[in-house]
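pipeline: protein-struct stage 2 | run 1193 | Cellulase family glycosylhydrolase
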Amino acid sequence: MERKEMTMPDASYFTDIRGAVYFPSRAYNAWQTWNELDEAEIDRDFGYAQDARLNALRMFTSYEYWQEHAEAFFERFERVVQLAARHGIRLMPVLFEDCGVDTTPQTRQDKNPHTAVCTCSPCRAVQRDPARYAEVDGYVDAFFARYGSDDRLLAIELMNEPHMQNQNVGFARYVVARARQKGGSVPLTIGCINLWHNLYFEGMLDVYQYHDNFPGSAAFLEMEMREARGVQEVSGKPCWLTEWQRVREKGPGWDVAAIPHEDTLPALHTLAETVYGTGMGSFFWSLMVKPAYLTAQRPNGTFNGLFHEDGSVYSLEDYQAIAGPGRTRPVTPTLPRWYLDSLEQAKG
């Protein structure tokens, strides 16, 4: 049954969402997440999230893995949802992705630490050709038939970062419209780069999002979040900051080959007080310590995250900024051992 009215999220959506973006430590993209899924690893990592007082995780699904193994995908997804619920966490699954290199079997499977990055989904050719949009209908329909009204999900994000430069806003609008046709009660949203990009989807979304991974100062982010609060109050819709990482005073570093070494390191504490002080919903990037997800940051050495696989944290200051003052865990202030080992192997 088509959604003729907007879903009205309850009061918790405006004040109580404390989240992170989640990929398993060694997954470079969403396809690898689902192809290599290990329930014990997911359970362990969700336990770390619970320990850090998080109640939501933003997690990318994989249309391509579903194309290859439809039933296996949904079996795995259901198990992940169950594990999240066990830890008091609600998932916000992301169905499609603008960012990354074009998706091919080779790019999806790539494990080379120098070249393995995120992959867009679906391929650019589908995203840019209205005659091919309907190719994703089976995935959207199957997902909403199973989860469109499942209150274990916080929201369903139809796509991450569609924008005019990449010629895929039409595709994203098609997917949102298709989702609304399928009915359901879980709030619908888009992972917008900027707050005003939500206007691409005027009258179609239940929750607004925006991203600012590397603001030049905490004061600048606070100003942005005040504007977002204004939008939230006027529109009556939750307005979440769904990607944030750290302050970079010398610039965000997108597509810059070299940035100050200090700026390549995780530093959630530089923004956490500002973000949480607003009382608005937010998700930091990322729960697990990993090399940068994007081609625009990987070459300059950026890595990000809070927890290592063994449960130690990269930074105690970051951990306390997220989990609360006085909390403690072992500290490992380096890149993950598995990643350093893979760099050595790549030299050979």
